[in-house]
Amino acid sequence: MDKYEIVKTLPTPCYVIDEEALIKNLITLKSVEQRTGCHVLLAQKAFSSYSVYPLIAKYISGTTASGLFEARLAYEEMGNRQIHVFSPAYKDEDFDELLDICDHIVFNSFGQWKHFREKALSHGGAEFGLRVNPEYSEIETDIYNPCFRNSRLGITLENFEENEIDGISGLHFHTMCEQGAETLERTLRYVEEKFGKYLYRMKWLNFGGGHHITKPDYNVDKLVELINHIKNKYNVEVYIEPGEAVAIDAGFLITTVLDLTKNGMDLAIVDTSAACHMPDVLEMPYRPLIVGSELPYVLPHTYRLGAPTCLAGDVIGDYSFENALRIGEKLIFTDMAMYSIVKNNTFNGMPLPSIYLLKTDGRTELIKQFGYEDFKRRL
Ligand SMILES: Cc1ncc(COP(=O)(O)O)c(C=O)c1O
Q: What pLDDT does residue 80 have?
């Protein structure tokens, strides 16, 4: 049986993490570490399926977290690897634990740094950084652009208090989303022009995430060149914290056709939901791919796929197929490991999809199964 036949045997809805694809991504990321001596960290916000953290730990330096919970997850599940954290603002009650478990804690403002500085420096162990905003980004959608006008993310040069950086070991920027090394190159020019003078006083620079390193057309040689340039010029360690690049194309969401109806076109209702199980389809928005389908009207049978929820706009997209769909037939959405599992919800009482691992030897392993109690417990 091929991969698709195997995953179609599973009860739906379910996510399937594809171990082989994950390893392929990790090998590429590890090669960047090996060629540059930089450190690659998994941004857990994109993918936190910790049952594969031991596998990830074999290839890359560690993880980064968006706050205490993700940091703790890495601490509990990834063993002895680096843990970094950045949050736009930390709470007093979380800070002691972060100090105990994190290697790097990155602050978003001088206000936060000054608030926690004394406690931070007296702790010993962790290193501290500041997120800067180079005011340059090539992201066109504001919701994903940390450099949009009046953004709260990162310190602009105008607000950089150069007399307050004693105790700070590194700088961090995150300004990219699904972009290539050419974008990084243009971004670094701004980072260097604005903050280069401070980099000479630092131990590290973190390039953030948004690097599409494991996409086939990504220019890994250029990334290597840019990392080496920064390392050599400023004598700093370089960190990158991709989320997507770790888990890209490393998972499926399997669904079953529940009903077929018509309203000006053929409609199919499936047992999954854009709003609940793949919210980026509505938020980004984008049209996920289905194995064996094409754009509408390319193949003989076109359907609009929608969810069994009340939300009129809970439409996944329009797809054409070689054969007419049948009730009970299973469909496979691709690239569903990242930003889907971490973002899902039970709106309308929709069941959460189970999570399976498709092992390299073709066996499937049930990682998590959810039921009514999971829905009820959160309410
Ligand atoms: C600070 C930071 N680091 C890393 C990432 C990971 O980005 P990506 O999944 O696009 O690589 C994000 C995403 O929002 C981020 O905000």
A: 87
